[in-house]
Amino acid sequence: MKKLLLPLFLAGFVSSSARSAIVFEDTFDDGGPATNGYAGNVVQDNDGNPMTEAEGMVAWGAEGGWSWGGSNLQTLDEFSFPTADQKYTIEWTIGPMAVTAPGESWGDIRMQFILMSKNSGQGAAASAEFWPLTAGGLGVDLVYKDGTNVFANFAAKNDTHPANSNPVSVPGQTGHQIDPTQENTLAIELTSTEASLYVNGSLSQTVALFQWDLGGGAGEEFENGFFLSTRGARVNAGRGTMSVSRVAVDLASAVPPPPPPVPTMALDPATPGLRLLTTGGQYDRQTVRTTVPEYSWVGAAAPVTYSVTLSEYPAEPGFQTVLYLVPSASLDTGRHFPDYSEPVCAVALINNTAEGGGNMRFAYKNDKAESNGYAGHDYWTNDNGDVYTGGEGPGADGTGKGGTIAYVNSATILGTWSATFTDSTTVEITAPDGQTATGTILPETAALFAGPLYAYFGIVPQALTNIGLGATFSNVSISGVAKPISESFGSLVDPAILEESAANPAAVLQVIPAETPFWVRWTVPDSGYKLQQSATLTAAPAWQDYSAADALLLRGEKWKLLSASDLLNPKAGFLRLLNP
User: Fold this and answer.
1) Residues 495, 563: one domain?
2) Which secondary structure element, helix H or strand E, spans residue 447, and what is its range?
3) Fewer CB near the terminus (10 Å): N or C of the chain?
C-alpha cells in the first residue's frame, strides 16, 4: 500500500535559478487594449462599463452601464497548466481605486483578476468573470466600498459550481489588506499542486489546489490550460475609477513538491436533526423551504409562530441562522437568496457571539429587489435610518420603508428562537433564555405579506473564516396556520412539507439516529485512495469498496455521513482508506 509521508500544506516553494522567462507582458502602451500583449486581447463589454487606454494603462469608470456593469480583457495568449517542475508567476500592477458614486450596500466598485479555464467561454460574447463561470478558474476578487478597508482575497470556482453563484474563498483566511488609494501589485504563483497570492511582494495566502478541487489532469478544469481575464465593474449601482498598467506572466522551473502525507481518519457520532453545512461563499444560503406557500400570518385567526431550535452550533462568532418569510407573487424558486433577490421579504437573523450567546433581529424590506432594502432602511438599520444596535429601539418612524423593528439578546445560542405575530402588524421575538422584544409594521406593509407566502429556515456563514462550519436544527415549526408544521427530523421529511433551497443541496443532510448514526472523516489530499469497509478483522477480512462520492470537503477534511443500510454490519464494522 502506497504511503505518502510529508506535510499537507507548504508555506511556499523554492524556485530553481536554472530557467526563468517572461512568456507574456502587456504594458498598455499603444492606445488600443485589444492590440496589446503578444497575441492581443479580446475586449468584452456586454454590460456597458467600457474601458479606455491612455498613458500606459487601461482604465474603467466612464459613465453608462447598468448597476452591475463590467468589462474585461481576455488574453488571446493561452497557457498550459504547469508540470511538476514548473512555476508560473502572474502579476498585475493596478492603479488607485476611487469611488465617484456610492453603491447601495456592501460595495461600490470591483476588480477581478482570474486564471480562467480554457474550457470556459472566451471571446467578445463571453463574460469572463466569476459569477457565471462553470468551467473553473482561480484568482483575486477585489471589492471596494468607499471609506472601508479593502482585502485582496483568493477566490475560485471548480467545474461543479453552478452559474450565477459566488466563488469560494480560502477557508479560515481573510486575505491581505491593501490601501486602495495607492498603486498595488498582485501576483499569483501557480505550481501543479498549489497557488500562492502575493500582495506588494508579501506572501498573503497559500492554498493547495485540492482544497478547491481544481486540477490540470484529464477531465479536470485546467486540462486544456488557461487564459487571463482582467475585469473592472460596478457594484450595487456604485461607480468609480480603477486601472491596470501591467500584466505579466513568468514561467520558471521549480523544485518538484514533496509528496503529501497519508490521510488520517476519525469517526464521530452524528447529532440527530437537520444538519446544514457551508461549503462555498461566505454569503451562500443553505436553507429548507416550505414546499407550498401557505404560511402567511396576515389575517390569521390566532397568533402565528415561526420557530427554529438549534441543538448544535459552531463556536466561531458571527455564524448566522436565518428565517425568511417571502410572498410567492414574484418568487423565483430557483434562486436560493430571496432575502436579496425578492422585492418584499421579512427576515429573522440569528447570530452567535464569542461568549456562546446570541442575538436575533427581525427586519423587513418592502419594495426593493436585488438588494438588502432601501439605503438607510436596510435590514440592519432602524426604520428611521439610525444605526440599530442591541439595546436601542425598535424606534421605527412609521414610514414603512423597511429596517429592523425588534432585537433581542440571549445568554445562549442553543435552544428555540421564535417570532410570533400576535396580529397582522405586531411581532414578538423570543430568545432561548426567555428574553423578548416587540415590533410593529404598518397595515399597508402587512398587506404585502398577505396571501401565498413561503417560509425558509437555514444558515449563512457570513464570514470567510466560517466557511466549512455548520449547524444542526432539532426542530422547525410554524403554528397558528391552517396547515401547521412541527418537524423534528426523526424520520425522513415529507417532501410535500419541506424542500431544499440551497447553494449546495448536497450539504443539507438529515441525520436520523437509526439510519445515519456516524460521520467518517479524513484529511486530504486523498488522491488515489478509496474508502473500504469490512464487518470483521479476521485473519483474512473481506474488504469492500464503500462509495465516498458524496463526501463533503470541509476545512481540509472530507466528511461522509454513514448510512446504516449501506454498512455490512450497522452495529459493528471497520473502515479504512486504501491506496493500492
Assistant:
1) no
2) helix 443-447
3) C
The secondary element (H helix, E strand) that includes residue 339 is helix 338-341
487 in the same domain as 527: no
pLDDT of amino acid 386: 40
**Domain enclosing residue 169, as ranges:** 20-254
Residue 3 domain flag:
no
Last residue of a domain, one of 510, 538, 566: 510
Residue 392 grid cell: 436601542
pLDDT tens digits for 15-53?
A: 333 456 888 888 888 777 777 766 778 887 756 677 888
Question: Which amino acid makes up residue 536?
Answer: T
- Name the residue among 387, 439, 431, 381 with its Cα closest to residue 409: 431
pLDDT of residue 55: 81
pLDDT of residue 396: 42
Mark whether 231 and 201 lie in a shared domain. Answer: yes
Residues 568 and 462 occupy one common structural domain: no
Residues in the chain, pLDDT under 70? 1-20, 37-38, 46-48, 62-65, 124-125, 171-174, 254-257, 383-400
Contact by Cβ (8 Å): 466, 282: yes
Residue 498 and residue 520 in one domain: no
How far apart, in Å, are the Cα atoms of 166 and each of 163, 169, 308, 313, 379?
9, 9, 27, 24, 21
Short-list 126, 64, 51, CA closest to 95: 51
- Determine phi and psi for 162, rounding to 5 degrees: -75, 165
Task: Name the pTM for this structure.
Answer: 0.70
Residue 276's Cβ-count burial label (10 Å; 0-12, 13-18, 19+) is buried
Q: How many domains does the chain have?
A: 3
Q: What angle do CA 237, 240, 243 make, to 5 degrees?
A: 130
Residue after which a domain boundary falls, among 254, 285, 315: 254
Q: How far is CA 298 from the centre of its chain?
A: 33
Q: Residue 159: what residue type? A: D
Query: In sequence order, what E strands does 191-285 have?
Result: 194-199, 202-208, 226-234, 239-254, 265-269, 273-277
CATH number at residue 323: 2.60.120
User: In this structure, is residue 443 part of a structural domain?
Assistant: yes
Q: Give CA–CA dist 487/492, Å, rounded.
A: 10
CB 239, CB 70: distance < 8 Å: no
- Per-residue pLDDT at 425: 94
Quick one: 376 and 429 in the same domain?
A: yes
Kindly state whether residue 262 falls inside one of the protein's structural domains.
Answer: no
| Beta pairing class for 530-534 and 544-545 | antiparallel
SS3 154: strand
In whole angstroms, give the CA distance from residue 111 to residue 95: 11
Q: Which amino acid is at 450?
A: A
